[in-house]
């Protein structure tokens, strides 16, 4: 099937769904019918028996003054340079269609790669949505860790493809040895989130290399590096791309760059991989003018990134110290969020926090009913969460 044929093929199983929520609900239904679990950050997550799952976003939106520690967002907001660029150029050009070449070139310069190795999208989610349609057309299977960010595996299952789930270890770290053992001759995609979401654990570069070496000849390793800046060996996965390895790296502006609401991400890969992905890529249709203008400006403000990383590191110390003092067991990883074991089912605690306008994620969404996932916020937000939790549980 050539590129033109792919572009006339809907990327939804039964035509375009009317809304994102309806589409995700269909994914959850399909996965349930197949006897599998889903891990979408949406309203259709798993919950403990007899417990009604609360919506991720309250009806009417988050109240003013609420503590939002549920989406791993940057509480510092966008870089002032990005805001200035939007106000100066991004809005006045809103009557014109986007021209993404300068954005791609800026990303290429930032990561030290040719522009031909970069695609941009409506968040990295665009590529998580479309990659199964590019690489699983021959009915191959996908290998993922469990739990992990579940979007792309859900798409694969909706296509009728097999998804092999490999449990993480007891500290929430991807078990690369078991991942390698799960790879079959029919495997076409191995999906790795590093650091892993929701658990926060990361694996070293040598283990990423071992996954590449275990791939069959017509498979790819897709590495979701939404939180790349928190890896001990940040950026080394790009060395594999430079070597021409079958690796697709996904990055986003939603986290350290604070542009979640603008929906901007990018994919990096060798030409052999991107040629396949281009067949289902939206080109510039997923990029709005504000995002196109803000991206290069955000990349140019690494001081803003540094401030956020420092906030996260100090926030992890604050949260881990408080939670440990209460007798709870947080995972020890470096990421802008953490999973914490409260030693009991957390749905009721999650609901009580929700009713106080303190928003975190219940571990039942990922089959971990005794856990909460807590994003790192400002010192004030972290303290509000700790104080409320202490009142409820200690």
- In N-to-C order, the SSE pattern is HHEHHEHEHEHEHEHEEHHHEEHEEEH
Fraction of residues in helix = 25-40%
Instruction: State the name of the first-level CATH class of the largest domain.
Output: Alpha Beta
Total helix count? 14
Rg (C-alpha, Å): 20 Å
Percentage of β-strand residues: 5-15%
User: Can you summarize the main beta sheet?
Assistant: 7 strands, mixed
The geometry reads as globular
Q: What do these coordinates show?
A:
This protein is of the alpha/beta class and 394 residues long. It folds into 2 domains: 45-77 and 303-393, Aspartate Aminotransferase, domain 1, CATH 3.90.1150; 92-299, 3-Layer(aba) Sandwich (Aspartate Aminotransferase, domain 2). It contains 14 helices and 13 strands. The chain has helices spanning 3-7, 20-33, 80-90, 101-111, 125-135, 151-158, 176-182, 205-213, 237-242, 271-278, 289-299, 302-325, 347-355, 379-393, and strands at residues 67-68, 118-121, 141-146, 163-167, 187-193, 220-224, 247-252, 265-268, 329-330, 337-341, 358-359, 361-362, 371-375. A 7-stranded mixed beta sheet has the order 2-8-7-6-5-3-4, sandwiched between helices. It has a 4-stranded antiparallel beta sheet with strand order 9-10-13-12, with helices on one face. A two-stranded parallel sheet has the order 1-11. Strand 9 and strand 10 (337-341) form a beta hairpin. Helix 5 runs parallel beside helix 6 (151-158). The longest helix is centred in the C-terminal third of the chain and has 24 residues, at 302-325. Mean pLDDT is 88; it is low at 1-50.
List keywords for this structure.
four-stranded antiparallel β-sheet; Aspartate Aminotransferase, domain 1; 394 residues; 2 domains; 13 strands; seven-stranded mixed β-sheet; 14% strand; alpha/beta; Aspartate Aminotransferase, domain 2
